[in-house]
Specification:
Elements (H helix, E strand, L loop, with lengths): L7 H7 L1 H12 L10 H8 L3 E6 L1 H18 L3 E5 H4 L10 E7 L5 H13 L3 E5 L5 H5 L2 E4 L12 H20 L3 H4 L3 H16 L2 H12 L4 E6 L2 H17 L2 E6 L16 E6 L5 H13 L3 E7 L9 E3 L7 H19 L18
Parallel strand pairs: 1-2, 1-3, 3-4, 4-5, 6-7, 6-8, 8-9, 9-10
5-amino-5-deoxy-1-O-phosphono-D-mannitol binds next to helix 4 and helix 12.
């Protein structure tokens, strides 16, 4: 039931702070110790490489997961689009462990990979929002996202829930393998800060609606840019806008723009930059300048400690690794208001189904 909300998507965006709290309660003790199946952790620890498999938004959540598993647990991690992996499998390591990210647990492309993984006898984990879904039944282990039903076709709370659960898992694994960075990472406290930060952003709806009207409503082309983890969020931000507002939008590694794509920038093209990582903040700012010099209308979404006068949207500070949980929220709302004010059916965009059960 969407209650007083005009569309499920807005309700689901608003639910994200609570989803963060729910995940912390479910998978962490009061003191922050992980409450995760020991056998699962041991199976992951025994692997020499993790392979994250997903489609669409779930693939994008995997791109953040790679950073979390590599930083916190020091386990090399690859992320693959399921429809590609199924038919062109890369060379595997000796002891692979597979993580399937799938909100619905029914995506045919991802299931096809799991069937092959099971035939080969490799261990696997499905992270899903739907108990007893096909991928959860067929994998060795399952963890539930506890995000509550996600009805809108555009995935929002499942993305942030997947990232938060990957962070909990990476922290637990890192502790098991004795990584100091994992021991010092106070995940419980961080998820609390994330929940509060998300609330502050969803409380800024009017501002985001205004930004959408000013920069996105009348355009047919836009860019989200960033480096590293900000690039990964750019891909998700662009998918949201494409999917429900039908604006052609690319998520781009900001340093790569000048190698060709910058030719698309015209007077007024919106270019939105994510700046949440200290080591690349200056670079992304100069890449934004380069687009501005070609007529782009630039907008910045910046974490507080990196913000300067004139930034458009300032995000509360949480650990750098968890900034995607906050930076994606304004992008979800920008997509929502653009779709809404174009008079489109936000929850049911054309040509799309909630779960894609054909390959
Ligand atoms: O249920 P899944 O997570 O496996 O779905 C994967 C994609 O179909 C899904 O994330 C899709 O990209 C969303 N509509 C994006 O908002």
């Amino acid at each position: 039931d969407k209650g007083t909300y005009p569309f499920y998507m807005l309700k689901e965006v608003d639910e994200q702070p609570n989803v963060m709290r729910k995940l912390a309660q479910t998978y962490l003790s009061e003191h922050g110790e992980p409450n995760i199946d020991k056998q699962l952790l041991q199976a992951m620890e025994a692997a020499d490489r993790l392979y994250i498999i997903g489609a669409g938004t779930s693939y994008h959540a995997g791109l953040i997961g790679k950073r979390l598993f590599e930083n916190l647990a020091h386990i090399p991690t690859e992320v693959h689009v399921s429809s590609e992996f199924a038919y062109e499998q890369p060379m595997l390591s000796e002891k692979p462990f597979f993580i399937f990210l799938t909100q619905s647990g029914e995506t045919a492309d991802s299931r096809e990979v799991l069937v092959n993984v099971n035939d080969a006898g490799y261990p696997s984990l499905t992270i899903t929002n739907v108990q007893n879904s096909t991928l959860s039944r067929e994998a060795t282990y399952t963890l539930l996202l506890h995000a509550g039903p996600e009805i809108a076709v555009a995935s929002t709370k499942a993305y942030t829930a997947q990232i938060a659960l990957e962070a909990i898992l990476a922290k637990a694994l890192g502790e098991l393998t004795g990584q100091i960075i994992a021991q010092n990472f106070n995940i419980r406290q961080q998820l609390g800060l994330v929940a509060t930060g998300m609330q502050a952003i969803v409380d800024e709806k009017d501002k985001l609606e205004e930004m959408s009207s000013k920069y996105l409503l009348k355009t047919n082309r836009a860019f989200y840019i960033g480096r590293g983890i900000d690039h990964a969020v750019s891909l998700e931000a662009a998918l949201k806008l494409k999917e429900i507002s039908y604006i052609q939008c690319e998520g781009f590694a900001s340093g790569e723009l000048k190698h060709g794509t910058i030719a698309l920038i015209e007077a007024g093209t919106p270019v939105i930059g994510f700046i949440t990582q200290a080591k690349t903040a200056g670079l992304t700012r100069s890449n934004l300048q380069e687009t501005m010099a070609r007529g782009a209308q630039t907008l910045t979404i910046v974490r507080e400690s990196l913000a300067v006068d004139g930034d458009d949207l300032v995000l509360p500070d949480v650990d750098e690794m968890l900034m995607p949980l906050l930076s994606v929220v304004p992008a979800q709302l920008l997509a929502y208001y653009t779709s809404l004010n174009k008079g489109l059916d936000v929850d049911k965009p054309r040509n799309l189904a909630k779960s894609v059960t054909v390959e």
